[in-house]
């Protein structure tokens, strides 16, 4: 078996282009896939037409003047704005495909907003959003981005209004100065101070004074009103953000997106290299007609399976160890956990190698073996990366079953646990079991050939 | 040349092979003596390759027995079973190691001399002609110095000059005492390079004797001018 292994390594050494393509393709595709999976979508281009006159963008909020255009900045954090001057220009940008959507802020928006905030009646302010329905996915993405941003802007304005309202409440309760348009600054007595004055007046009155019951009633009301309005401030504060979010991880690790990208890239490379090498090198024995000669007492079929699994696993292990080492250094992963990484890389490489030999055992030529390895591995990898909750329950259960039959998902889980912590034993045993099952299948498939 | 007194190198006794209902071989028995050249001839699907594979140990018979074990027989499959990315010497060295030959280097040197490929020893097999590949293919079958060499259609992919060289090489082995058993479609080759022919049809051994005896069986030289004509008529007379 040793001589066969050396022979295979010699053949690989004589095929630098093939090995280069195999390794290069695997690494590049896996890295790109990993980065794509871990990075969010780029900002969509959105045409933005602000039709509000520059000197008309402020609204009065209590005693303050707030520039409404500052809320547009929130939108620009999430989209790539293409600033235009007219509504028609904005719509044309969408039609031409230059922008995925357009947001038009009409000229009367601040006026209407002022009317709404000042309880002056009139229609509520409206902004206009235009989409291209050319690509439903892109349309949905732009729609969601603009909707969520507008919701944030609404919440921010609400918060400002509530803050001003709370100030007024404070003045009503405790008294103080308030700026009033035209009149100027006005001193408000406030409920507490009013009550204090009544209490002081009551103290000067005889016990049977006829004014006393009425004044006592007013004093009690002032006290109750002040206390209850005080209580209403935290309630008002909670209106702007009625629900707070606490994030707790109940399954999976707390791997960062960059660590996840590294895991996907490493396992992807492992899969391609081990599968293609194992399937191809076993098929090569038959393509070169050497298989019949070998199993005629020179090497047992089981020995052949073990040798090919070992070769593929060795190559995948070396490649992914180097790859993970570089990625770990770049991403600042904890090298103290490196022994666990190596265990996972070894187990994963063996499982993929065994699967590759099973594929190679079912085919007669290198080309068909390589094609079969691609056809089997790509959908399996894609399915294994489908997150729970993104599809219907029944479909996800089916995906889990399919993913459990192939090494990609358990390899991802095991590497995730090795890098970021979590249950390592279960996915590791899963990989070992898959390696044994696929090796047994490969051995069975070799019975067909003489 | 046939030597009836030479010791028996290989005996097949009642070899049978069935694939479900289909019987590929039906009780084939024969012996091969040392230095004897035996050609197995027959129409397509007669069972020639199946018989050789069973003799070589690549295929298990359904019934019957073969006197030698697989490691004691040299086997040369129809298509060269070699690694095209390895050199001639590397192929010989690899199989010598797998055959657990005692003196690997010495054996490789001997084979390079025997095949006349010493000057191509460092060339990758993929760069060799079909004839030269077949010589390496035969040489690998001889690495363990077997007393019996089995060849399946050894000259099928060779041009006339390459065929001539191959048969000269194989005849040299027989003269050195190796029993050579080969399957061929080329009856003329069997006539020239076989001491004995075995005629197989539908898995049945119909004839075992010298080419001349086969010609006589169908009525003599007048009616069968050569072995090929005699062979065709022989099969026709027996309903094949």
What features would you describe in this structure?
The complex is a heterodimer of chains A (450) and B (240). Chain A is of the alpha/beta class and 450 residues long. Chain A has three domains: 2-39 and 257-448, no CATH class; 45-157, abc type-2 transporter like domain (abc type-2 transporter like fold), CATH 3.40.1710; 189-237. In chain A, 66% of the residues lie in helices and 8% in strands. Chain A has 16 helices and eight strands. Chain A has a four-stranded mixed β-sheet with strand order 4-1-5-6, with helices on both faces. In chain A, helix 11 (301-331) runs antiparallel to helix 12 (338-361). The two termini of chain A are 19 Å apart. By secondary structure, chain B is an alpha/beta fold. Chain B has a domain at 8-81 and 147-237: Rossmann fold. In chain B, a hairpin with a 2-residue loop joins strand 8 and strand 9 (204-209). The longest helix of chain B has 16 residues, at 160-175. Chain B starts with 7 loop residues before the first strand and ends with a helix.
Features:
heterodimer, A: 450 residues, abc type-2 transporter like fold, 4-stranded mixed sheet, 16 helices, B: 240 residues, alpha/beta, Rossmann fold, 3-stranded antiparallel sheet, 25% strand
Strand content of chain B: 15-25%
Number of helices of chain B: 8
| CATH class division of the domain at 8-81 and 147-237 in chain B | Alpha Beta
Indicate the structural class of chain B: alpha/beta
Tell me the number of structural domains of chain A.
3
Q: What's the total helix number of chain A? A: 16
Spatial order of strands in the largest sheet of chain A: 4-1-5-6
Structure summary, number of beta strands of chain A: 8
CATH architecture of the domain at 8-81 and 147-237 in chain B: 3-Layer(aba) Sandwich
- Binned, the helix content of chain A reads 55-70%
SSE series of chain B: EEEHEEHHHEHEHEEHH
Q: In percent, how helical is the residue content of chain B?
A: 25-40%
Rg estimate of chain A, integer Å: 35 Å
What is the CATH topology of the domain at 8-81 and 147-237 in chain B? Rossmann fold
| Alpha-beta content class of chain A | alpha/beta
Using the CA coordinates, give the radius of gyration of chain B: 18 Å
Largest interface: A-B, 20 and 26 residues
Q: Please tally the β strands of chain B and state the result.
A: 9
Distance between the termini of chain A: 19 Å
Biggest pleated sheet of chain B = 6 strands, mixed
Oligomeric state of the chains in view: heterodimer
